[in-house]
Amino acid sequence: MAAALRIEVHKLLSEEQRAAIIAPLATYSRGHGFPFGPNEVGVVLIDGGNIAGGLIGSTNWQWLYIEVLAVAEPIRRRGWGRALVERAEAVAIERGCQGAWVDTFTFQSPGFYQRLGYEQFGELPNYPPGHRRLFLRKRL
């Protein structure tokens, strides 16, 4: 018999906890021919010696996922966001990826991604209230 089971909520997971939670999913996926092993992509924008933005993402199963893209307000609209995405896409292509996807919100930057060739493939309405979360993809 298993020890008494319980559920805990953690505000922040350690790397060990995260790995332990993912392990059963990774084992299951690997057993079905899809090894789960996302590889981080980090593209950092440096201004002098300071970080002024960047892109956080990962590649897995021949796709790039863009989790976060941010550029400091004073240097926005100067092509840095485009440069960050294009560099991440180049890394993804080097890793054998066939596409990229991202989720954003109607109050953020869907037009930015669409100008880069991304097309919407899904949405979550009223998230946050009065807006939509949009899912976009692009073939690389």
- Spell out the helices and strands N to C: HEEEHEHEE
Q: For the record, give the distance between the C-alpha atoms at the N and C termini, rounded to a whole number.
A: 50 Å
Helical residues, percent: 25-40%
Strand order of the largest sheet: 1-2-3-4-6-5
Largest sheet: 6 strands, mixed
* Total of DSSP H or I helical runs spanning 4+ residues: 3
| Poorly predicted runs of 5 or more residues | none
Radius of gyration: 18 Å
What's the overall average pLDDT, rounded? 94
Strand content: 35-45%
- Write down the overall geometry: globular
**Count of DSSP E strands?**
6
The structure class reads: alpha+beta
Based on the structure, what is the oligomeric state of the protein chains?
single chain
Can you offer a commentary on this structure?
The chain has 140 residues and is an alpha+beta fold. It is built from three helices and six strands; from the N terminus they run H-E-E-E-H-E-H-E-E. A six-stranded mixed sheet has the order 1-2-3-4-6-5. Strand 5 (119-125) and strand 6 form a beta hairpin. It is globular, with a radius of gyration of 18 Å.
Secondary structure: elements and pairs:
Layout: H1 15-31, E1 39-47, E2 50-60, E3 63-71, H2 80-94, E4 99-105, H3 110-115, E5 119-125, E6 132-139
Parallel strand pairs: 3-4
Antiparallel strand pairs: 1-2, 2-3, 4-6, 5-6
What key phrases describe this protein's structure?
alpha+beta, six-stranded mixed sheet, 36% strand, 140 residues
Put the structure in a nutshell.
With 140 residues, the protein is of the alpha+beta class.
